[in-house]
């Protein structure tokens, strides 16, 4: 299902740079292309944290908020040859446009996901690079961290199950639903993150829903093998499944 940005979002074209800036025109801060370069934030001493995975994610201080700056990078074997560049077909098909549109849809449907701040697409011949800015979730931690410190409870697992079901009820399939893409904030609200390459359908099939759940379970088992102390018990998992089933609308 093709998703488009709402009317309060605007795309401006910088002809000289052959680039497109995607932003919410009703936001209090107007974006600039410099905001999508780590060097800008470093020069102003506003990088407060970095996270390393597939590339570096930058957490930057912008007035009273913390924003998250991430570049889209390829994974797998092809990344050895082409890491940052993607074949351009249309602006609405770019990774950043699709993720922003999907996050806005999920928020409209009541799912706890990060708020998109903006995106930047730069064309280079037949290819493009792109970056996204998101509002950081205050006080959020990975559920993965709770499993390593004996802080996970069945109540938290129930909330995880409900949030995943809400995402599926919204017709959204998560491309990489793993234990590190689920966060909990100081109020113990659950948040789902990293919606790159995810997609929306009018209604997910039962097989698609179960594929997400199975992917999550595999990630938990993988972490359990990697760490000598990792507490995600059968009772925790069952609490998650029960809450998920109670919240999920019937899938076809």
From TrEMBL:
Topologically, how does it sit relative to the membrane? Peripheral membrane protein
Key word ATP-binding present: yes
Q: MF terms per GO, please?
A: ATP binding; protein serine/threonine kinase activity
What InterPro entries does the database record attribute to this sequence?
Answer: KDO_kinase, Kinase-like_dom_sf, Prot_kinase_dom
Pathway membership of this protein? Bacterial outer membrane biogenesis; LPS core biosynthesis
Question: Which keywords accompany this UniProt record?
Answer: ATP-binding, Cell inner membrane, Cell membrane, Kinase, Lipopolysaccharide biosynthesis, Membrane, Nucleotide-binding, Transferase
The Protein kinase domain covers which part of the protein? 1-252
The entry's localization annotation reads: Cell inner membrane
A GO biological-process term: lipopolysaccharide core region biosynthetic process
**What Enzyme Commission number does this protein have?**
2.7.1.166
Q: Which residues form the active site?
A: 176
- PROSITE patterns from the entry? PROTEIN_KINASE_DOM
NCBIfam families in the record:
PRK01723.1
| Role description | Catalyzes the ATP-dependent phosphorylation of the 3-deoxy-D-manno-octulosonic acid (Kdo) residue in Kdo-lipid IV(A) at the 4-OH position.
What is stated as this protein's family in its record?
Belongs to the protein kinase superfamily. KdkA/RfaP family.
Instruction: Output this protein's name.
Output: 3-deoxy-D-manno-octulosonic acid kinase
Which source organism does the UniProt entry give? Opacimonas viscosa
- Output the lineage of the source organism: Bacteria, Pseudomonadati, Pseudomonadota, Gammaproteobacteria, Alteromonadales
Report the gene name.
kdkA
């Amino acid at each position: 299902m093709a998703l488009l940005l709402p009317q309060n979002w605007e795309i401006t074209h910088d002809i000289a740079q052959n680039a497109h800036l995607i932003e919410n025109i009703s936001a209090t801060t107007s974006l600039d292309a410099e905001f999508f370069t780590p060097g800008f934030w470093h020069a102003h001493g506003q990088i407060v944290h970095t996270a390393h995975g597939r590339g570096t994610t930058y957490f930057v201080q912008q007035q009273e908020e913390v924003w998250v700056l991430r570049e889209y990078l390829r994974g797998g074997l092809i990344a050895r040859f082409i890491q940052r560049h993607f074949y351009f077909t249309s602006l609405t098909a770019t990774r950043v446009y699709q993720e922003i549109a999907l996050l806005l849809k999920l928020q409209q449907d009541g799912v706890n996901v990060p708020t998109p701040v903006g995106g930047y697409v730069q064309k280079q011949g037949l290819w493009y690079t792109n970056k996204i800015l998101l509002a950081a979730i205050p006080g959020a931690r990975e559920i993965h961290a709770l499993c390593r410190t004996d802080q996970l409870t069945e109540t938290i697992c129930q909330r995880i199950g409900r949030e995943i079901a809400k995402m599926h009820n919204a017709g959204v399939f998560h491309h990489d639903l793993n234990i590190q893409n689920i966060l909990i904030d100081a109020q113990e609200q659950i948040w789902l993150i990293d919606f790159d390459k995810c997609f929306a359908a009018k209604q997910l099939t039962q097989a698609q829903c179960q594929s997400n759940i199975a992917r999550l379970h595999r990630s938990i088992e993988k972490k359990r093998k990697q760490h000598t102390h990792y507490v995600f018990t059968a009772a925790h998992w069952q609490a998650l499944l029960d809450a998920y089933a109670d919240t999920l609308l019937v899938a076809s």
